[in-house]
Amino acid sequence: MTKLLLWLFIKDADKTEDLSVRSAYGKLAGITGTVCNVLLFLAKLTAALVSGSISILADAINNLSDAGSSIITFFGFRMAGKEADAEHPYGHARMEYLSALAIAALILLVGVELFKSSFGCVLRPASIRLTPITVGILVLSIAIKFWMMRFAKYLGNRIQSTALLAVSADSRNDVLSTAVVIVSALIEHYTSWRLDGWIGLGLALFILRNGFQIGKETVNALLGQAPDPQLVKMVANEILAHEKVLGIHDLMVHDYGPGRRFASVHVEMDCKEPVLGCHDIIDEIERDFLTKFNIHLVIHYDPVVSDDKELNRMRGLVSEELKKIDRRLSLHDFRMVRGPHHTNLIFDVSVPFDLMKDKAELKKKIDDCVQFQDHKYYAVVTFEAACIEKPGS
After folding, report:
1. Of 45, 207, 59, 55, nearest to 125 (Cα)?
2. How many helices (H) and strands (E) does the chain have?
3. Are the C-beta atoms of residues 58 and 117 closer than 8 Å to each other?
4. Alpha helix segments (H runs only) across 224-348
């Protein structure tokens, strides 16, 4: 069914890197979710009125809120697919994150309302009138929601969408909650145990936890969380694969929403290489990243001295000392300023956030390392926070 819908409604469905195709995926998920959830709401509302069950009524209201989530998904993807303009030069892709945040808010709202109504049911329990039609509606609801969960997850994984994966998680919650409602109704029907309110409280806590988790993940994306380590490794390896590139540092990846990634990096090349030739290589790397990975990459060219024995010896010495302190420490932009009585070693050190408070101690260890050499050296160090850890560290 899922592949049939893709074939019917999305042209070039395999080209998921295309922003228009991505938008079509989101719109399809939004329309499908709206139709299914409205039908489920009407069916469960009927079942709740017949049975008198507060948990079934809460389940029906949950489906109504899911229909609202689907509408948000539709318009979120529609706005996220808009091209960049003067007011938003990096595009509108973060609207997808805002959609996921709105869905999380609706999930939390449903959880709170379900908790309130279930608590009232615990205090004032009422009997449930269970009929074959009621059970049939709930079983059919589970089947439909299970398909919706798989449908949203499949689409979400194909286009790496936080919003659609949030919809999938919400549908999974509905499958579990409806299954528990059926079990509690059957237990009460055959044993007269009044579990309806207690089951509702448990479902409410589960839904609240899930809504909080989705909201937390979405807020992290909006605030600018660290990129996926696999993405960082891929970017680094692609750049280092070029023969003339000796090393990289200060790699930063900025996420302006799915399909809107920007990155910057310093690339080290031998200072003896022709400048224009290095510039051509840099242009080629930047074009390749945009074409292959849809990443807007900006490269800063760093020429390095590779044939100075003293410089290489001291750079290796300091680098080894840093590795002894912590393997995540790395240096770059290493240069020497020689004088008649001493030599200044000038370089930058990338420091993980958890070690930034220990900069004074790090500086002392570096000073001790260079001052025991056969010549007077002074270390002039700039410590910088490593926004992205070096791949493989």
Report:
1. 55
2. 11, 6
3. yes
4. 229-240, 275-293, 309-325
Task: Give per-residue pLDDT as tens, 44-96.
Answer: 888 888 877 776 777 787 788 788 778 888 887 787 777 777 888 777 777 77
- pLDDT bin (cut points 50, 70, 90) of residue 136 is confident
Cα 56 versus chain centre, distance = 34
Q: Residue range 184-210: average pLDDT?
A: 76
Residue 374 has pLDDT above 70, yes or no: no
Q: Which of 252, 255, 212, 228 is nearest to 97 (CA)?
A: 255
Instruction: Using CB atoms within 10 Å of the CB of residue 214, give its burial: 0 to 12 exposed, 13 to 18 middle, 19+ buried.
Output: buried
Q: Rg for the chain (alpha carbons), in Å?
A: 29
DSSP character at residue 87: S
CB 301 within 8 A of CB 267: yes
Residue among 162, 156, 142 at smallest CA distance from 213 = 162
User: What is the model's pTM?
Assistant: 0.62
Residue type, 186: L
Q: Is 15 exposed, middle or buried (0-12, 13-18, 19+ CB in 10 A)?
A: exposed
C-alpha–C-alpha distance, residues 93 and 82, integer Å: 8
pLDDT, tens digit, for every residue of 202-237?
Answer: 778 877 887 888 788 888 877 777 777 888 888 989
Dist. CA 4–CA 8, nearest whole Å: 6
**Cα of 260 vs its chain's centroid, Å:** 13
